[in-house]
User: What shape does this take?
Amino acid sequence: MQITLNVPEQYLIDAEPEELARRIQLYAAVLMFHSGELSAGAAAEFAGVDRFTFMAECQRRGISTVNYPAEELAEEVAALR
Assistant: This one.
């Protein structure tokens, strides 16, 4: 599916339209992952990048890619002991 977005030319200062479209798609994927709308794998696919690239982008933006409740982690550690 293709979605059209009108962007004023003043915002294309240092980017070609294709590059800006790629960045917007990645930003949308990161936001949708952060809000819980997409899993990390689905967000990477949405952005058109591999999982490592997607996770690096999340890390760059301070968004955790691990959602593991502390209680569950403590239970699993205790079970390993």
